[in-house]
């Protein structure tokens, strides 16, 4: 039986799919493996089921050995995988698109509402035991209706966010590589998304082109009353520039579910009331995480059976 290395816990349903095609080893560590541990762990594997915190590069492929056929990343994003290096070795790379679209779009709205209705601030106040009482001017936020949502990167998740935004009565502008003929929002240059939006929500993948897409200049281009929401990958935002912009009052607030040096967070963000911080929860529902792991396992099963993967990515 071919060896299948799973770099961290996955739901049983997915383990069972893998067990039908190989001998499964799941890392027992309740943390990401170090690069050395990862190389040792994958040694002799035909398949690696990887997490977004694993850096899968040529050294990992080399450590796995010439029998490596497939890397199945349990995430839609695959910036952690050197796809070109895998392709060069004939190793198939797969991700998990589609199954986490709704969960991530839902969380995006949770963050939008947390920002505009000051949920974190209110929660901290109640827990603090400090006195408070209802009054007409107490912890006022702002509504979403009639505001403009700017979507950066109109993939499946961006579209699902747009559907929700329509239900909240928001206008939609979007930027990306191309206009989508079947989508009702207004396609505008990235700079115009920044200039016009009350909320800028990031849904582009992390690539060399999108690293620090939100830098000091981009933040300055946003409206002073605007909010930034990041549920994609931390390095799309220059976190230090974001802290500067918040300190200078250049934007109204930000919600981050992902971080530049995850799990570390720019310390200047931690004490700010107008910042919402969540620990990479975009896809974190039982159903979604199970579906992601099962899809990754099916990708492995297909490739090891000599068939096409279900959701392959290419460099
Ligand atoms: C999660 O962040 C993913 O890319 O699936
Ligand atoms: C670019 O960000 C795109 O998704 O088109």
From TrEMBL:
UniProt cross-references to Gene3D superfamilies, sorted A to Z: NAD(P)-binding Rossmann-like Domain (3.40.50.720)
The record places domain D-isomer specific 2-hydroxyacid dehydrogenase catalytic at 4-313
Q: Does the keyword Oxidoreductase apply?
A: yes
For this UniProt entry, the molecular function terms from Gene Ontology, in alphabetical order, are: glyoxylate reductase (NADPH) activity; hydroxypyruvate reductase [NAD(P)H] activity; NAD binding
Q: Show the PROSITE patterns listed in the entry.
A: D_2_HYDROXYACID_DH_2, D_2_HYDROXYACID_DH_3
Q: Which CDD domains does this entry report, sorted A to Z? A: GDH (cd05301)
Q: Which residues form the D-isomer specific 2-hydroxyacid dehydrogenase NAD-binding domain?
A: 109-282
The record, for Pfam families, names: 2-Hacid_dh, 2-Hacid_dh_C
Q: Does the keyword Nucleotide-binding apply?
A: no
UniProt keyword annotations, A-Z? NAD, Oxidoreductase
Q: Name one GO cellular component term.
A: cytosol
Recorded hits in InterPro entries, A to Z, give: D-isomer_2-hydroxyacid_DH, D-isomer_2_OHA_DH_cat_dom, D-isomer_DH_CS, D-isomer_DH_NAD-bd, NAD(P)-bd_dom_sf
Please state which protein family the record places this protein in.
Belongs to the D-isomer specific 2-hydroxyacid dehydrogenase family.
Q: What is this protein called?
A: Lactate dehydrogenase-like 2-hydroxyacid dehydrogenase
Lineage, highest ranks first: Bacteria, Bacillati, Actinomycetota, Actinomycetes, Pseudonocardiales
